Amino acid sequence: MPTNILNLPAYSVTEFHEEDHDYHIKAETKQQIVSCPNCHHIELEGFGRREQMIRDLPMHGKCVGIYVNTRRFRCKGCSKTFYERLPDVNAKRLMTSRLVDWIGQQAVKRTFSSLADEVGIVEGTVRLIFKDYVAELEQKVRFETPRWMGIDEIHLIQHRCVITNVENNTIVDLLQNRNKETVVKYLSQLPGREKIQYVAMDMWVPYRDAVKLVLPEAIVVIDKFHVVRMANDAMEKVRKSLRESLTTKQRRGLMHDRFVLLKRESELTDQEALKLSGWVENYPELGLAYRLKEDFFTIYDSQSKEEAFSRYAAWEISVTEEVRDAFSDLIKAWRNWQPHILAYFDHRITNAYTESVNSLIRVMVRLGRGYSFEALRAKLLFSEGSHKKSQKRPAFERCAPVSIPSMGRHIAGFKSLVSANHYQNQDDDASEESKNYGVDIAMLTRMIENGEI
After folding, report:
1. How far apart are CA 90 and CA 54, in angstroms?
2. Pick the CATH number of 148-223+350-362 from 3.40.50.2300, 3.10.28.20, 3.30.420.10, 3.30.565.10
3. How far apart are CA 70 and CA 85, in angstroms?
4. Which one, of 99, 33, 92, lies nearest residue 66 by Cα?
5. What are phi and psi of 115, to 5 degrees?
6. Could you report the per-residue pLDDT of 4-32, keeping only the tens digit for each?
7. What is the pTM of this model?
């Protein structure tokens, strides 16, 4: 009899055949059928057999098929017939349980088509297994609902909504799209959503409407980076418009102007400051746009909402007709979103991890070729080692020190003290469970860049 190369103790191998791309292994189960699964009667008789082909883990670069001679029985008690249940075989598919687990794990790292080719199945089957695997992970992995929530977006094939934990700089979830209905559905199903205090977001109306509908008590704060970026965009409009009217020689004089103009004035080197002073003298409109951009940035140096409002009012008056068209989007956005923009000065929360998110976007876009959204979402949320967790303290650290009463103390008092300490420790255990705050953005980016996932 051939050696049991399957490493499945519940089976005995009866025949082995090798081809160029496949292993064909015939096997029988070793289990004893002792009773009817319907009436539990113990008197059974054989009632035929059938051969079933079960897929297993690939070996030596070849697909593996296990041909099991499955026994059929008839119960003498209820006269019903039944086939024996095959051990170590997945309940939904003619595959070993270890193969189904392996496909789910590998599908996070590899394309569905490559897995299908290696195992010898169709891509649709890999997709269904992966869907079940992710559903199982979502039941096991629970992220803490953030007190300070961020709603951002990332471009993976199309715009996707990203839910973040601003307080811990982590990603909590990645949604199929950024539509209001999708965001409302997510927020409505979020456990403990009543503890969300602030929501930082960009100026995308569906985000605001979804939050106001589901989280009416939460304070919406417009991320300052999205606002000041509009000032940079306005200056860019002026710069591009000016360059279109210049000769080739004049354009050469503005070499690298974009990089200089996007810098804050305090960050300019001496050489860059000299260049800028020359451009401002020769092109007053460009100098005006730069000054307006810099003045707008100083609004966010305000110490209060009232001071910010006052600075903005003075800034808008200073926007002259020459450049007003370029800054019109910024002015319109401030007027439409003013309460939420000014909310920043009372509650200074922001997606401070913007640079890390941008790095992650670039990496994920590069990796996105050949992967489905579901696979990318799983790679983003469930990669091992990328989660930020709070550690549960050992029990001996949580217990308050208890001094042993002297022999002269009453035994009843001692029992009362020990009992109280015991229940106090139980309360501590319940309140200090380890918490998972989501995916650490910086850690995940490093892992992807290093090829760890």
Report:
1. 10
2. 3.30.420.10
3. 8
4. 99
5. -70, -40
6. 788 888 888 888 888 888 999 998 888 87
7. 0.72
